[in-house]
Specification:
Length: 131
């Protein structure tokens, strides 16, 4: 995790310089938070699941490689959406959703506002007790 706190200067880095966190089995995360956004690089092994959750943040999930199946609990009912390499899914704030890796996947996520829960470590839904 990297928190960029100087809002008067640009920040430049490489993902190699951002600490990788082992989350649930088969899920690793790196992220950078600014004043108003969070950008995350998520790697998931085939079969890994990010369980149903919701957050106040709008999310754009851009698949760099692989394929994720999102389950979305929308007003009209539950639906699934497969998102493949080069495709993205915009998830509105407060919409319950989960993701399953149908292949080994690299996902670049953008959140607004920033993920204060991740910054503070209040993200237990993403963590295994053993990790």
């Amino acid at each position: 995790m990297m928190k960029h706190t100087d809002n008067t200067k640009a920040f430049h880095s490489h993902w190699r310089g951002i600490r990788k966190e082992a989350m649930k089995e088969g899920v690793d995360r790196q992220f950078v938070s600014g004043a108003q956004t969070t950008t995350a690089l998520i790697t998931m092994k085939k079969g890994a699941v990010v369980p149903k959750h919701t957050h106040e943040n709008e999310q754009v999930a851009l698949i760099l490689s692989g394929r994720l199946r999102f389950t979305l609990w929308e007003d009209e009912g539950i639906r699934t959406q497969d998102v493949r390499e080069g495709e993205f899914l915009l998830i509105p704030p407060h919409l319950p959703h989960e993701a399953e890796a149908l292949e080994d996947t690299v996902d670049l996520d953008f959140f607004s506002p920033n993920r204060a829960d991740w910054d503070s470590g209040d993200d237990q839904y993403l963590r295994d007790k053993d990790v």
